[in-house]
Amino acid sequence: MARTRNAVATREAPPARRSRKGPVTKTPEGISPSTQPELWTGPDRHLLDLDHVSTQEITEILRSTDGMKEVLSRRVRKTPALRGKTIVTLFFEASTRTRVSFEQAGKVLGADVINVTASASSVTKGESLLNTVRTLESMHVDVLVIRHPHSGAPYFVASHIDAPVVNAGDGTHAHPTQALLDLYTIESHLGGVAGKKIAIIGDLLYSRVARSNLWGLTKMGANVVVYGPPTLMPPELDNAEGLDGVVRAASMEEAVDEADVVMMLRIQRERQAAGHLPSMREYSRVYGLNARRLKLAKPGALVMHPGPMNEGIEISPDVAHGAQAVIEEQVANGVAVRMAVLYMLAARGASGR
Amino acid sequence: MAASRKGIAIIGGRVIDPSHGIDRVCDLLIENGVIEAITDGSGDSAIDGYEVIDAMGQVVTPGFIDVHTHLREPGEEHKEDIASGTLAAARGGFTTVCAMPNTEPTQDNASVLEWVVRRSAEVGAVRVLPIGAVTVGRKGETLADMAEMAAAGAIGFSDDGDPVVDANLMRQALSYASGLGNGGLAIMNHCQEPALTRGAQMNEGAVSNRLGLAGWPNEAESGMVARDIELAALSGGRLHICHLSTRQAVEYVRTAKKRGINVTAEVTPHHLTITDEWVLGHHGEAVAAVDVAAYDTATKVNPPLRTRDDVEAVIEGLRDGTIDMIATDHAPHAQTDKLCTYEEAANGIANLETAFASVLSLYHSGAMELPVLIERMTAAPARFLGRAAGVPLGTLEPGGPADVTVFDPDLEWTVNPDEFASRGKNTPLAGTTLKGRVTLTVYGGAIAHDFSRQGAAVDA
Amino acid sequence: MASGTSEIQGKVILSASEVRRALIRIAHEMLERNGGPQGLALVGIKKRGVQIAHRLAGALEAIEGQPIDVGGLDPRLYRDDLEVAGTKPVQPTEINFDVENRPVVLVDDVLYTGRTIRAAMDALIDFGRPASIQLAVLVDRGHRELPIRADFVGKNVPTAGNEAIRVLLQELDGEDSVLLVRTPEEESV
Asked: CA-nearest residue of chain B to A130?
């Protein structure tokens, strides 16, 4: 069981508090040399994104998801695995579907789940986020699930709390459990993602789903092709470190051509207001998935969407509800994936106490 | 103790005074608050009666000048005040700091400036020269009373923290200030095109993309630098570019100087030494995965930390004189201003006490000659101040104020913000080791900082 | 749970033929105890217990000539040692038959502390209310920590704390044998 891939903070040194590395002598120019990426021994006690999760861990989470899916199919959908454990979902953004998914996952595992919703806009100073987290910690939280409109908020929280932290979506950064459930959904249909062509289409710039999926899919060996309006493509995507195997398509047709999976991203209407897009009508015509375009993909190619969908904009209703769509399955798999994650992290948290 | 003596003799050090091209081992004699003499191998008799400071193996230079400091007083004394800020300056080897006007109330009128001058004279450990606001309330709408502020001691004008966005207002400001002081006062602009930096948290690039943080592209700076250069040419005014951070802006300034346009520029220690990779945590070391050390709010600063390529460009710009001087942009903040998400965090680095040691890495790496580096912190900012300072600064010329800095270029130390005199503990350098330390700061002939006494300041 | 390969060195407790004979004997004992195969179901505990359950079912079918329901169960989610249990993926439990009012025999390779069996019983009960729950193991190595005993035992092997039992099965390991191996530290089974 050699773990040589990267994960983040080792269990030996739980990063309970933000700790600095030892003194670092600055090099000439004062710029640190570009060193080889460190090898992490893992496993990490948090799930913040997929970049720090090894392929082996991803595989184990997906296998565990099989087991969790079976639990969800039982007559008695309840196990005592996390009995006596408290899971807090701390949501600074409205998201019924994700919150409920985590809540159900925790409850099926027997944990007590406390839902806290807060508004980031009413929190004018970050001190309040820290205070909230410290208050929760003093109430003995075993796993903290957090969603926050600011990128990196779960990292900040994780550096100030002993309990494992699950990132349920942070700003425009990451959404690792969505990427895991997408991997699981693809795998359950295609047997795996390695060597498969996965087209991700839409707003890659602001999509935390896409960002985490790029890590997950490339780690697991998929050929990822991305396409979207140039205004919504990260300028650095082409040479992004560690994201080997991501290719930018020149057209919608090229992106979808012979794809095994077509993953459509939600387009936020505020992108139009911010000047990224002329109109939703044009977006739909140029960047939307319809039956005609889907024909270019492999027969039986999967159609995915993280939801909630703008039907008629990024995806036409016939495709969204067509035979190739696995969108509802994604939602169902979400609970099982989150059970696997919560169970794994609760165990790691318990061993650290 | 010094009072009972004749004066101070700093002997045996390598004296570097770029204002006179001096770079040799000799002695410096200080008496009655002024530089008495620079003498070669003065015998025991010559220093008889002086408080003798042995500077063997150390470097003796004019006191450093910082044209860009935030002292926070009046109004934000929980972040810093004139006493703590100037003490931090003394520890960092600075004997003159120019206080930016983003105080509360704003330094946008003569009475606030006069208050700052008076307060600084009372509690300041070093000299404080005020900078007035360009516009009333730094709102970018109406020109502030610049002539009255000049009379009250303003050495230049800036809405720092915010740019003068309106091109016409900038033109008028440059033009108006050109008639003030003796030979014109500079408009010190914070160049940031606001429409290109809406919501921006850090430099736009690979790291911002990886972290999902909204980016601040280089062009938001360089575009306004280009505009301001044209406006300086148009108005004939003095333009000063604050905290220049991008390769493109260096190029614009270089070309402008060739065209003979009256433009100067400053660069901060952090833009000379660290990159946007520091936002990933781990002091800029490559990381395989983003971890909880990332989103280090101590790295949040405006303009943001840039790429390696920009760092190389500003170093080259400083070396060849395109960038005239180093300025700290010392921006102290309370802990709570940084103990939050990256998006919520305040911009700024508390810089005064690490600035010199940071930039000394340019000398240790061979990127810059020591006298050139010293020039950028002494003679160059003194030229910028010109006669506005009232006294000759940035020089060891006999008869001038005895502002002297002594440093050990090879002394290594680990940055511990808890030991800062500044109330701002916000620095990404915490825990890093720097090479070179200011050991003695003399301001106006009195010792303002003596490292051998555990860094405890002796009141000037 | 014993995990290993044929390279593992240790003292052979049961050879391949002894394993085979032990399972046939247990099959007979089960029939005797339950008065025949009527209603009998086997549920193996993952993962080696599942293979053994299938072999026992094969033996029962050979004797009685009628099919026996066999399931597999992962008791991980019912264990009392989350910090250890949670380090491995949870496997799907496969009980595709009704356990209500039937005699169900739990099958495992090694009986040790009894904690796994306790967890397995709790898991099984979530699928219905069996008429009875019995336990069959290939090896009982002692050291019980709960009031649990096996109804059917292939072989009793007194062990020391620094010893462990490795059960190798053809389906997983390429050979059948049971080994007694020394471990530097006490092994969790």
From this structure: B340
Query: Do B185 and B154 meet the contact criterion of CB atoms below 8 Å apart?
Result: yes
Query: CA C38 to CA A134: how far, in whole Å?
Result: 59
Beta bridge partners of B443: B446
**How far out from the chain centre does Cα B45 lie?**
39
A74 is a domain residue: yes
Phi, psi of C167 (to 5 degrees): -105, 120
- Cα distances from B59 to residues B357, B362, B377, in angstroms, run 13, 16, 14
Q: Which residue range forms the structural domain that includes residue A194?
A: 176-328
Q: Does residue A93 sit within a domain?
A: yes
Give the ipTM of the model, two decimals please: 0.92
Model confidence over C58-104: pLDDT tens digits?
A: 999 999 999 999 999 999 999 999 998 988 999 999 999 999 999 99
- pLDDT tens sequence across A83-111: 999 999 999 998 889 999 999 999 999 99
Answer whether B35's CB lies under 8 Å from B50's CB. no
Tell if the CB–CB gap between A38 and B287 is shorter than 8 Å: yes
User: What type of residue sits at position B361?
Assistant: S
Q: Does B410 touch chain A (CB under 8 A)?
A: no
Q: Give the integer Cα–Cα distance in Å for A236 and A201.
A: 17
Please say whether the dihedral angle defined by the alpha carbons of residues B359, B360, B365 and B367, taken in this order, is positive or negative.
positive
Chains that touch C (3 or more CB pairs under 8 A): A
CA–CA min distance B29, chain A (Å): 35
Report residue B150 as tokens. Answer: 């000049």
Catalytic: B291? no
Is A61 close to C92, i.e. CB distance below 8 A?
Answer: no
Q: Which CATH superfamily is domain B63-355 in?
A: Metal-dependent hydrolases (3.20.20.140)
Of A304 and A34, the one with more pLDDT: A304
The model scores a pTM over 0.95: no
Assess B428–A contact: CB distance below 8 Å, yes or no.
no
